[in-house]
Amino acid sequence: MKKLTILLLALLWAVQLSSQSGTSSNIPFKMEELTSPKFVTAVEKAGGVCVIPLGIIEKHGPHLPLGSDLFESREWVCAAAGKEYAIVFPPYYFGQIYEARHQPGTMAYSNELIWKMLEETCNELSRNGLKKIILANGHGGSTSFLEFFCQSQLASRKDYIVVLFQPGSDAALNKEINSLSKATLDQHAGEGETAMMYFIRPDLVDIGAIKSESGLNQARLKDLRYGYTGIWWYANYPNHYASDSAEPNKKLGELMILKNANQLAQLIKYLKANNTIEQLQEEFFKRTQNPIQK
Ligand SMILES: [Zn+2]
Question: Which listed site, 66, 129, 162, 244, has its alpha carbon 20 to 30 Å from 292?
């Protein structure tokens, strides 16, 4: 009996050691944590899938940190990679954010730079064997830019694919999320984001400042119909805060992160097992060489 206990303890110790040293069965998914030799193993384990969690540095109401989108997207991306292995790209905060340039702490890079940054990042990932790239966006202001970036992948032949993660509904989790939600207006730095940040890093949420500014829609362009203008956001939310309630709720934040993590894990799994996008892309590029050939 004593011998068996010693044997079991030795086994447990060995398992613990192997997990600490990040052996192939428990290899880190964060790219910056991998050694160069282990990166090679990681690429294989990931089936060539790399996820880039995209954030931004901008004001998040009066109470959340500038890097909120970075914290949030990395949280659900890492949770997804923990469920279905993929390599997670290091913190990435280059995107479209001109509409917050009037607020302190916003880092708004030029269109040329954000485009080149993402294009060259994808090229470099591909050169390193990561041919299936998922963009996991945590910043609403970059949505159009990222969709346009994906459309532009068809401009010239690529040996990799880029997929923008698009979360959908989840009946069971949505029910739970809705039962915890109190806000009727919940957008930028609102109830959802406050809840997620309160779950991830409660020490960074300045609870006392939540009501120090208004997050209500000021509707200063309410008479403009049938027209889109870049100033629409500033017209509605000049405080860069869009919410009528931002009470911190840890459980709500946890569920919101879980919902994205579950769906992203499914996307990773699909891309690992399926090459239809690559095949269609290749077929498309062949046809673009000579569109009139039958
Ligand atoms: Zn945000």
Answer: 162
